[in-house]
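Onboarding guide, step 5: your first structure request.
Type a short instruction followed by the sequence, for example:

Predict the 3D structure of this protein.
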Amino acid sequence: MGVGYRIDPPSELQRELLEEAGRFGIRYGFTVPIHNNQGPIAAVTFAVDERRPQFERCIKEHARVLQLMAMYFHAHVNRKLISDRIVDGDILSPREFECLDWAAQGKSAWEIGCILGISQHTVAAYLGNAKAKLGVRTTVHAVALLTASKSIKR
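The system replies with structure tokens like these:
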């Protein structure tokens, strides 16, 4: 359903996405794409399992408010997720943080790789990136900074 927008026929990839959504019971809805300066990065969907006139009226009447809600929701979640990955003032990627967090629990690169389904060399690369961002030479030092940042946030 478009609210003042032209709708092109769905591409093959879009059809696959719609079919998958249908398998989860999402058959009718209103999706708000979320963009940043590099293009689309996320989407928030308000959906129901079947077409309902009351739902359609609500979407038409409140489309702009739903768009605003979606943008605020995404911004809030993004801020929350990033703030959890700030260590000593530096933002770690989700994988860098995850590898460092497992290292803080005493896991080796091999064990972390098994847990995350990646190679120990990839784990070492993530830990190396985290150490570079934090300006430290050892994983032990990076873990100490992570532990300190967690105790400050609590």
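Each response can be followed by summary notes, for example: The chain has two domains: 12-83, 88-153.
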